Amino acid sequence: MEKYIIQIAPDRQRAKSMVKMANQTLMFIKTIDTKRFPSHVLKAYYDVIRILMQSILLVEGYKVKSSKPHKDLIVYLEKYYRQLTEADITLVNYLRITRNKIAYDGFFVNASYLKRNKQAIHKLIKKLKKVIHERLEN
Predict the structure, then answer these.
(1) Pairing between strand 62-64 and 5-7?
(2) CA 69 → CA 3, 66, 89, distances in Å?
(3) 32, 73, 77, 81: which has the fewest Cβ within 10 Å?
(4) Which secondary structure element, helix H or strand E, spans residue 137, and what is its range?
C-alpha cells in the first residue's frame, strides 16, 4: 500500500452521501450558462469527479493523507482500478491541473473545451458511479 493511503473503517454511509452531493452538483451544472461561465463549469465537473473518487476509497476503507491529496488520489486509482483507462486518467489530471489554474491563477477556460470534452467527462463520471455502485452492492 502506498504511504499516502491510510486505512480507515469503511464508511458506506458517507460514501453514499458524497455520491448524493456529486449528483446535486451535476444538477447544478445544468443550470449554469456554459458559454458564459465555462471555468466555473469545469471546476464543478472536477469536484464531481474528485468526490466520486474519494467515495470509492471510503467504501473500501481508505483515505488519502498527503500534501497533494488530489494528485495522490488519482495515482492510487490509476494503479488499483483497471476500469479507468489511460484516457480517463489523462482527462482527470488535466481537469485537476486546470481547476488549480482557475482557482489560484485566475485562468479562464474556453467554452469550446467543454463542448469538445463534455461527452468524455460524463463517460468518466458514469464509470466512477458504476465502480461505487458495484462496491456498495458487495
Answers:
(1) antiparallel
(2) 12, 5, 15
(3) 32
(4) helix 111-137
What does the alpha-carbon distance between residue 72 and residue 119 come to, in Å, rounded to a whole number?
25
Question: Which residue's C-alpha cell is 493511503?
Answer: 5
For residue 51, what is its C-alpha cell?
468526490
**Tally of domains in the chain:** 1
pLDDT digits (tens, 9 = 90+) for 16-27: 999 999 999 999
CA atoms within 13 A on the CB side of 113: 16
46-101: per-residue pLDDT in tens? 999 999 999 999 999 999 998 899 999 999 999 999 999 999 999 999 999 999 99
* 53 CB neighbour count, 10 Å cutoff: 24
- Grid coordinates representing 16 are 453514499
Q: Give the domain extent around 132.
A: 5-137
pTM value > 0.90: yes
Identify the CATH number of the domain in which residue 95 sits.
1.20.120.330
Q: What is the DSSP letter of 8?
A: -
Identity of residue 19: V
